[in-house]
Amino acid sequence: MNFQHIFGKLSEIQASAPGRVNLLGEHTDYNDGFVLPTAIPQHTTVQLSFSDDAQHHFYSENLQERVSILDIHHTPSGFASYVFGCIEVLKQAGYTIPSLNVYVQSSVPMGSGLSSSAALEVATLRAIRQLLHLPIDDVEIAQLAQQAEIHYAGVQCGIMDQMASSLADTQHILFLDTRTLERRVLPFPNKTTILVIDSGVPRTLATSGYNQRRAECQEAAQFLGVKALRDINDAKVTETLPEPLNRRARHVVTENNRVLEVLQGVTPKRFGELMNASHTSLRDDYEVSVPALDTLVQILQKTAGVFGARLTGAGFGGACVALVALGEEKTATQVLEQYNDAGYTGQILVPDFEVNHAA
Question: Active-site positions?
Answer without folding.
Answer: 161
